[in-house]
Design brief:
This protein is α+β, with helices and mostly antiparallel strands. It is built from two helices and five strands, in the order βαβαβββ. Strand 3 and strand 4 form a beta hairpin. GO terms for molecular function: nucleotide binding.
Amino acid sequence: MTDSSITISLKLFAAYQEAYNCEQLTLQLPPNTPVVAVLDRLVGEHPELERWRPVTRFAVNLQFVSADTPLQHGDEVVLIPPVSGG
């Protein structure tokens, strides 16, 4: 029997954290979903985040990755927008 979804934890920072008013989300996704699909989902739920799409970097399990990196069950994903001091 194969699982039809994977579970990932998503750490939120800066604009993403403000939009969701929390520091972390748990998401169910199809297996091998590319990490960019997580950003697509967040922008779909909060269109005001669209402005951050071109400058957001991705990390999976504490390693910077490309947007097309496939996710696996249990991965920790971080979307990293530009952060300014203040």
